[in-house]
Amino acid sequence: MTPTITAFERSPDRGKGLARDMRVRWALEEVGQPYKVRLVSFGAMKEPAHRALHPFGQIPTYEEGDLALFESGAIVFHIAERHAGLLPDGANARARAITWMFAALNTVEPPILDLQTTRFLEGDKTWYKQRLPVVEDRIRDRLGELSGRLGDGDWLDGAFSAGDLILVAVLLRLKASGILDEYPNLSAYVARGEARPAFRRAFDAQLAVFTGIPPTG
Q1: From the CB of residue 77, how many other CB atoms can be counted at a distance below 10 Å?
Q2: How far is CA 206 from CA 1, 41, 45, 49, 140, in A?
Q3: Peptide bond before 55: cis, by omega within 30 degrees of 0?
Q4: pLDDT of amino acid 116
Q5: What beta strand segments (E) does the chain contain?
Q6: 26-50 b/e with 16+ CB inside 10 Å = b?
């Protein structure tokens, strides 16, 4: 059965691959699973029909038969469990990959999202100039730890996994800030993720929603 995911009708990121449906698209492309996309407007996201799928009125959602899921991490985990290619076969390696999925979303992403909130919603506040360096330093603390853990490895734990997929998607939010460039091995790590054919297909599909130009690959 072909699953259906939801995505922004007009994404706030203007097709830069930062909206969370990108993570789901990428996972589906990695495992070779065809999928359909239903675009929703900001208004429709708050309507009862969409809230029945996502109680918080956000995207993405995932529908497959009588199964409906929300939250990008949970959806990627479901895809990884159902299809080969995103979780290792060995029990311990599999557990570590899942651990990295949680770490990306619960430890690495929160300060990055805090930076975005500070820059885009609090720029006119009296505390902005004092708060911004504090938020950036929290991110640097996390990236320093992550950089040390990755070292000179291509991926977090041997072969590419769902843990890498989620972490690369999270770190992409830092590209425009310049902070990621301070950690060459992390910058190269993200570039490796972006170079994967499945990522390119997912990115082009998401960009096509914004531009109205169908992907050619």
Answers
A1: 21
A2: 22, 15, 18, 23, 29
A3: no
A4: 74
A5: 4-8, 36-40, 61-64, 67-70
A6: bbbbbeeeebebbebeeeebeeeeb
Which pLDDT value is given to residue 5?
98
Rounded distance between C-alpha atoms, residue 144 and residue 186, angstroms? 9
- 70 bridge partner residues: 61
Q: What is the pLDDT, as a whole number, of residue 135?
A: 82
Place of tokens 């040390």: 148
Please name which of 166, 153, 156 lies closest in space to residue 30, comparing C-alpha atoms. Answer: 166
Q: Give the tokens for residue 139.
A: 């991110």
Is residue 63 helix, strand or coil? strand
Q: Which domains does the chain have, with CATH numbers?
A: 4-85+198-211 (3.40.30.10), 91-196 (1.20.1050.10)
Residue 122: what pLDDT?
58
DSSP 161: -
Per the CB < 8 A criterion, the answer to whether 143 and 180 are in contact is: yes
Q: How far apart are the first and last CA of the chain?
A: 24
Q: What are the residues facing 67 on neighbouring strands?
A: 64
Give the β-pairing of 4-8 and 61-64.
Answer: antiparallel
123-133 burial code (b ≥16 CB/10 A, e <16): eeeeeeeeeee
**Alpha carbon distance 144, 51 (integer Å):** 39
Block means of pLDDT (10 residues each) for the chain, length 217 residues? 94 83 97 97 96 96 97 98 96 98 96 76 65 84 97 96 98 92 97 98 92 68
